[in-house]
Amino acid sequence: MGYSVSVDTDKCVGCGECVDICPVSLYEIVDGKCEAQNPDDCLGCESCTGVCEHDAITIEEV
């Protein structure tokens, strides 16, 4: 079982909160926006969705 990670770049403001909180260093800020660099490593903890004030990140179980 895994997780699908998507980032809505229209909503992302590049604050970096998701980068700081992710326990597996999934995210990186690229050109001022968040990108999931290693989506297969996602644990599904949803820490990133909790800190994203702009609802730019979606985690779905697949």
Break the fold down into its secondary structure elements and pairings.
Layout: E1 3-7, H1 17-21, E2 27-30, E3 33-36, H2 47-51, E4 57-61
Task: Provide structural commentary.
The structure is a single chain. The protein is an alpha+beta fold and 62 residues long. 16% of the residues lie in helices and 29% in strands. It is built from two helices and four strands. It has helices at 17-21, 47-51, and strands spanning 3-7, 27-30, 33-36, 57-61. The strands form two sheets. It has a two-stranded antiparallel ribbon with strand order 1-4. The chain has a two-stranded antiparallel sheet with strand order 2-3. The longest helix is centred in the first third of the chain and has 5 residues, at 17-21. The mean pLDDT is 96.
Entry summary:
With about 60 residues, the chain is α+β, with helices and mostly antiparallel strands.
Order of helices and strands: EHEEHE
Strand order of the biggest β-sheet:
1-4
Please report the number of helical segments. 2
The overall pLDDT, averaged over residues, is 96
Rough shape? globular
The overall strand count is 4
Proportion in helices: 10-25%
Class by SSE composition: alpha+beta
Radius of gyration: 10 Å
How much of the polypeptide forms β-strand, as a percent range? 25-35%
Distance from N terminus to C terminus (CA atoms, Å) equals 6 Å
Low-confidence spans? none
Largest β-sheet summary = 2 strands, antiparallel
